[in-house]
Amino acid sequence: MRHLLSIAAISAILAMQGCKQTGSDCVVSSPDGNIRLTFALNGDGKPSYSVTFNGDTVVRPSLMGFEVSGEDPDFRSGFKFASRPVMEDVDSVWVPVWGENDTIVNRYQSLRVALEKKASDGTQRRLDIDFRVYDDGIAFRYLIPAQGNDSLTITEEYSEFAMPADLTAWWIPGDYDTQEYEYNRSRLSEIRGINENADKLGNVSQTAFSPGGVQTSLMLKGSDSLYMNIHEAALVDYPAMHLDLDDTTLTFRSWLTPMPDGTKATVALPFRTPWRVVMIGDEATDILATDIIYNLNDPTKFEDTSWITPVKYMGVWWEMITGKSSWSYTDAENFDLATFDYTKARPNGRHAANTANVKRYIDFAAANGFDQLLIEGWNTGWEDWFGKEKEFVFDFVTPYPDFDLKGLNDYAHSKGIRLMMHHETSGSIPNYEQWMDTAYTLMNNYGYNAVKSGYVGNILPKGQNHYNQQSIRHYLNAIRKAADHKIMVNAHEAVRPTGLARTYPNLVGNESALGTEYQNMSTAHETILPFTRLKGGPMDFTPGIFRTDLGSFAPGNKEHKRATTANQLGVYLTMYSPLQMAADLPEHYMEKADAFQFIKDVPVDWSKSRYIAAEPGEYIIVARRDKNSPDWYVGGVANEPTDYKLSFDFLPQGTTYEATIYADAPEADAITNPEAYVITTGEIDADTTLPIHMARGGGFAIRLQQKN
């Protein structure tokens, strides 16, 4: 042991000597040398950092630190170095449980600075800052050592991101309770005006703290050779970070989601914050391909991950979302769950989660090779939940009279598939935490291994919100408890993910964005989400909608899904998730069995992914190789009509593939002619170039089956 400690000490000394210092400045570079981060203490002892990319400034000097409660709140000035900065080179590879690639390279140079200052009461304060510089971005986090007190209450975090110019941004407004917005595209200098005039423009803006407020992940573009993205990683026991823009200086400052008393976080010492991340690249595909968010999270906590598997599923959800069917069993008025007797109630005749209808879905899903079937509206209470802010609505264990809990599970298992559980908390976190172990145990008893949880409505107790420290603690607690029961989690209306699926790979999906249930979204939306919301982890987007005129099967629904059939196939590739739904009704898939074949074939787990071409808000094209075969799949989506010459140079030389190409018909259009598509076949190899046309709101999908 003494020998090992000596080696560690020598390594630390060598690392300290490797830090280039000029006065109080310290410089650390990416492994390829293209990104340089400079840390500095200015004359007032204020810590700051700046970043260059290919010699150009991309983050101007930006201040750092905190304000804390107490008589001396200043935790952002008056610092000096407590010891020499320490650097380290890391070059490793890890294997994800599921993902876009078999392996992920984790390669960076790190810098840790240890700072100290004397507080006004004479006590010594300590603050350490970790920096990591990758080839595709930078990250930093704060480490607050134990220093004479057990805890610290943070009232503000002052992490700045000073932008180099009036960049173009794809953003949604700051909101403590939802990310369910369509994205705005504007210059940074225009954000405040758009937020302030949101009502006049017809937008649904609920800006919670400032007209300059936006949410992460924030996509940015400068010139044609600069793309950036600001996000956070490893959000644990801390509020979600928003960004507040000073549009006179073009500087973002972190804005933490507050608790009801206005404070931001109370942390037990020692404590480390989430990472603040700036992704950087000279092509849009660099932002899509980076693994920096996952790399900043801890390795998996689980020794055994065999119970965690990617899932392709169906469900009765689309019936209810479109209004064809209902969640509730009865339409009883003046409903009181405490006294209502379901055995004497008159069914409304529209309840989707009834035994006969679920069996119909089970038969179809099993016959077409799906893994699971999600059943929402199976449990009592749906008559009494939406918008009522009741502490108790659902117990997560009591089925409606027309839902045979045991019989349907037995039937599904006999067909080789599982049912997926649904837990809608109605925002009542205390109630869900009280029932969670009981609900998970019920799932174990009936063979469920995946749950879709929901947090629709205001968070209870009143005054709380979806993204503050208390809610963040709950979401992770639910994931950990689910893991104790070997259950995978697909959380809806929870906080947007920050790469925690590396640490807790049973978190196989989130929503936290505008998904398919908003049926009339713009044709640009699907070309923006992979640059924004998906940077922290996969989304349960629920694609695969073939019948786009919703009123044709759901009377009274006037919505129109703005996507072509080929687009809906392409989404299975451009929006990666290990949890993919075929969301439409079985009868609609039977009408287009030839196009449905692609949904049946496309995998949900990959060994290699290559982003071929992309531009946020315009188009995305990606190629992926199946983890369980030598076959490749290629897909794309587009906002406006797009023509592209697709090269297959990612394929191995000398190998021929049989291609099945699902494409927009020449007359296809997401709004005027969405269901026009063509399917062709042919041979493809590494030297092939294929012209591709994507319609407005269109796309394409290709299956490549190896021949030799």
Strand content: 25-35%
Note poorly predicted spans: 1-18, 201-205
Structural class comes to alpha+beta
The CATH topology assignment of the largest domain is Beta-galactosidase, Chain A, domain 5
Radius of gyration: 26 Å
Quick one: overall form? Answer: globular
- What's the CATH first level of the largest domain? Mainly Beta
Oligomerization category of the chains in this entry: single chain
Helical amount:
10-25%
Can you count the beta strands?
39
Number of domains: 2
Largest sheet: 11 strands, antiparallel
Number of helices, where a helix is a run of at least 4 consecutive DSSP H or I residues: 13
Distance between the termini: 55 Å
